[in-house]
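Chain X:
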Amino acid sequence: MKQVQNAAEFQVSIQSSNLIIAVFKADWCGDCKYIDPFMPEVEEKYKDRLTFIEVDVDKVGDVSQEQGIMGIPSFVAYADGRELVRFVNKLRKSREEIEDFVGKALDVYHTLHDTADALKNS
């Protein structure tokens, strides 16, 4: 997972027309460490459809505040500089829950792009 080093890099990443999922986390976070073993497999499963980026809330704190991240790990999907959907709660996140979120993010992304394509062609 590509680690975002600063706010400018985050902004460039989320401007992509492709689906980007930002994972907000920190080294000290137990629930973040819980997802570390299986996240590479999740990334691999979806690598042809989206890109994951990692935002360390301690190193890039301004971004976390701007995005309203109150708990970690948090997952936020973006495309074209806009937030599409987020998965944020105070509970530990299972692989199944993360993959469910990824599926929802893909659905929203495709719905928006299909609608935009239809408008262009009408």
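Chain Y:
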Amino acid sequence: MTTPAQAPPARVRETASPVDEDVLTAIETAMVRIRRRQSRRSLARPVAEEMPEPIDLNTLAVIDAVDEGAARPEQPVTVGFVADRLAIDPSRASRLVTAAVKSGHVLRVASQEDGRRSCLELTDTGRAAVSAAHHTRQQFYARLLEGWPEEEQREFARLLDKFVHSLDTVRP
């Protein structure tokens, strides 16, 4: 009988091309560090502070989600979409969307396909806020990538995009 301390490590599911254990450890460590930074909202706070008008961090998250959805015309931007993007339950998303509407950043509009459904759009104030957020974040990323050769910058962007798209298709 083996004890937990003696148990063999869990096997990684076989894939078409095996992944080196050192690579997996490096990715896991990096992702944990990113998650910790994100949970502290270390980038969101400076973004919110640099806005022309004060903005709540939750409202910033909502307008980011609505902005992301606007780039996907095949999927209506609803409270459910926001809940999915923020990985929160629909009732919490509804409260956050309501606050974003009250702050003047988001507008509820009737769905053109189903009049019983409300869709979300950014107001001019919301578009200005999301534009300022994009600008602030991109300036931060530019400072991080400063000194990287252009080829590495492009390869990093390509691989990061590929990795993030995989997050949407592969379940733990």
